[in-house]
Amino acid sequence: MKKRSIAAIAAAGVVALGLAACSGGGGGTAAAGSSSGPMPTVKMMVGGIDKQIYLPYDLAQQLGYYKKYGVNMELSTEQNGGVGAEDAMASGQVDLAGAWYVHTVDFQSKGKDVINIVQLSGAPGERVMCNPKAGVSSGADFKGKNMGVTDLGSGTDELTQFLAAQQGVTRKQYNTIAVHAGSTAIAAIQRGTADCVMTTQPTVGALTSQKLATSAIDLATTKGATKALGGAWPAAGLLARADWVKKNPDTAQKVVDALVATMHWIASHSAADIANKLPQDYVQNSTITKQQYIDGLTTDKGQFLPDGIMPAGGPKVIFDMEKTIGVDTSKVKISDTFTNKYAEAANKLEGFKTTTTPAGADG
């Protein structure tokens, strides 16, 4: 999949938002919450900025919402073979990660205090796409197969393990290979190095249109995730180190304000409207036509949450999965892994009503 370079995206953000961000990177605590001072600069890395499941982060930039709510946002994307977005955030290379909520549990199980401060989707947005000749229709059929995931240890790797474990298949009974997304995932199916790949739109649309693979397991919608995983499965969110949030609460609120406004914009606009706002190399390139992108987004748009509030019961589904695949969560409290307070404040600011208000961390 064709990606913009990190430098190009960051530069575009700086041009679009002006040169007021003289506070530098790392959150700009001196400017946080100040109406007269320069905008705080925030660095966010997204786990594949051109993937449909992660479209809200850049859409907020295209809509001008980060600037509107008082933040100079520098966006970047993780690269194949490079550091993951969540790891870049945890190590302090960037302030925030556009990544899956499950990583907060993984980090906290290892003693790293990472928290999710707004939830953007209630389903992984993934599909297990398989060569029709592979004969895969459930996790039970993974046995003896080559299963493609984004990266080893990634969220798609964990999801694949969970789907298999539910059917009594252990990780040792199938082969896991890293295929990333876009052209590399397509090539893995095309060459036969992978029987199946867990991937998202627009790769799903490309595999389907080229008749290389069919959808064996649907995790792209809340309904599909509930059927396959036992409940709403909160995926894309905004992850940060708890110490960064504590030091930069006003800046964190501004970022969440921008993203919640974006989620309401998504809910009230068509897939075509959304595609027209995104960088065109995301929605039309060598692997996908714009109409295929729009068709895929129309089908999977229900994964996005309109208000940024964590789905009730969603974290428990994640914890159950983690335990099933062997992650030690005995020292991790659900209430420490996310907070709704920033999303609730953002909805109140705009006069929106939230759909659900489950208990969450105080932030």
Labels describing this entry:
alpha/beta; 16 helices; 363 residues; 15% strand
Descriptive notes:
By secondary structure, the protein is α/β, with parallel strands linked by helices. The chain contains 16 helices and ten strands. The protein has helices at residues 6-17, 55-62, 65-68, 85-90, 102-109, 155-165, 183-191, 203-209, 222-229, 242-247, 249-267, 271-277, 280-283, 290-300, 314-324, 341-350, and strands spanning 41-46, 72-77, 96-100, 114-119, 126-130, 146-149, 175-178, 196-200, 214-219, 236-241. The strands form two sheets. A five-stranded mixed sheet has the order 2-1-3-10-4, with helices on both faces. Strand 6, helix 6 (155-165) and strand 7 (175-178) form a beta-alpha-beta unit. The longest helix is centred in the C-terminal third of the chain and has 19 residues, at 249-267. Mean pLDDT is 88; it is low at 1-36 and 357-363.
